[in-house]
Amino acid sequence: MDENILDIEDLVVHYETEDEVVEAVNNIKLTMKKGEILGLVGETGAGKTTTALAIMGLLPERVGAIKKGKIKFEGENLLEKSKREMRAVRGKKISMIFQDPMTALNPVKTVGDQIAEVILLHDKCSKVEALKRAQDMLALVGIVPERYKDYPHQFSGGMKQRIVIAIALACEPDLLIADEPTTALDVTIQAQILDMMRALQKKNNTSTILITHDLGVVAEMCDHCAVMYAGEIVEYGTLEEIFDNPKHPYTKALYKSIPSLDKDVDRLHVIPGMVCDPSDLPSHCSFYDRCDEKCDACKLHDPLPYEIKDGHVVKCLKYQAREEE
Amino acid sequence: MAENLLEIKNLKKYFSTPRGMLHAVDNVSLNIEKGKTVGVVGESGCGKSTLGKTLMRLHEPTSGQVLFKGADIASMPLKEFKKNYRANIQMIFQDPYASLDPRMNVLQLVEEPIKTNNKNLSKAEVTAKAKEMMELVGLAKRLEGAYPHELDGGRRQRIGIARALSLNPEFIVCDEPVSALDVSIQAQILNLLQDLQDQRGLTYMFITHDMSVVKHISDDIVVMYLGQMIEKCPADEIFKHTIHPYSQALLSAIPIPDVHVKHERMVLKGELTSPINPKPCCRFAARCPYATKECFETEPQLRELKPNHVVACHHAEDFV
Question: What is the ipTM of this complex?
């Protein structure tokens, strides 16, 4: 049996400021097998990036706090590690591709130096050797290696994103977290980057968490998919289950609100209302106000994640109740 | 036959840079009928936004004509344009986070264009009109005193729409109005824009890079590449019978949210070439998988291959 590379248990992350407590991530549970690509979808403020930052140990100091839970990576709880130990993990075992390639790179260092920096930090080797490996990485992501002496502003957006990917992959991590890696790019460039990520993933068998709000990207890339809403995973399952057999009202509404390329509709389906304020979450189901399948019981209980089918988990009272009857 | 509200003839906008002339919009000709929506698509840097801003005279056109109800708004003195036409041609800007003054509250933001353009209105009249606009775009009364930073992207974009509509324009340039928004909010804004069009007979130019959005909202679609219009046809036609290889590539690059559709993807090599001093050849030739010697030597002209479907490609017949 495959071992789990990542096991998140009951993770709770709060951002605490003087005036309020923002409950960004509430009790999420997530397991990932080795070599799997997991899609994490949801709207702005759903807690996708916070989850990623918690895994990386990069939550903003003082403000961000992990209240509860465990993040087990290859069997070890990352939350118990010291800062020093985390530094050894970060970049080497787990690395992250950041959302905006325009701001993720250092404008006053050459891209070769920026890639070599990670290699020097984690692997004992000479500067010359590190630069040589940096050039190999550039070639791997489809940039002429001779350009390692260039600065970020000399590259276009798509190429900068390739460089960010090269940095993330430089130490051949076991787990890669890609936070909206193509959101800032044009579709044609997005297609290039996704093709490249898929090829590299096959080659190294890297487990990947792909954070995105684009369901199309998920359909093309992922094996499993988790839908997040207001800091909770409301639905989790294999790609086929989530796309062919969505159960949670939010997932269903999400599909209906995307304009389709092959069907003509006069009006788009609208999810009424707004995402509830994470500093003031209700005690009942957080999707209640916007849900079009709600019933009275939804206002009384907060639903528990319920496995309706092997590996397909839904957090909705509708399915939970049906089972208990 | 519907009348043309806007006729663009050979519009050019060049920017001078240290390395030569940058051809941001090159020889674009386009007619927009009253009450219709024309979608403009293309990658970043293809001149979509410059085209929109040039129509608004936010950029001065280098040459060419823009006839708005028969009057050439591109060559008239800017003062005259501002006085008589600007209120009629409005724009909704791309980024609702950057296009609003952070120190003005919602009511002030909506009042501002009304005040500037109707000097004879009393303060009470201005406020009344602004409140009417807020209601029209679905901004609740309690938000009047709120500042932009307190609002989410969807509400901010509604302020942008209210500002544009407050002058009763006939033509609105929507520059990526939903790109910065989440899908569920995007649907709300698209529906709002459609409702307003039905109620007020508005004409839109809808600039976006999202093909599924443009298909949903447009009657006609224009595909731009490096400042040039390379294909124009009715919206449903482009998804069924695209002709230009670039449009085909653009369409095939869209990830489809369905696990069963496995489409052949045409991945383009490279990126946009530089629009500075382009050579007189097909600008897409360097990335085109079908390019021949001819493509690198002469520039293809727009030809009407089917009714209402024009394409600029030497080999267009082969793709019909």
Answer: 0.78
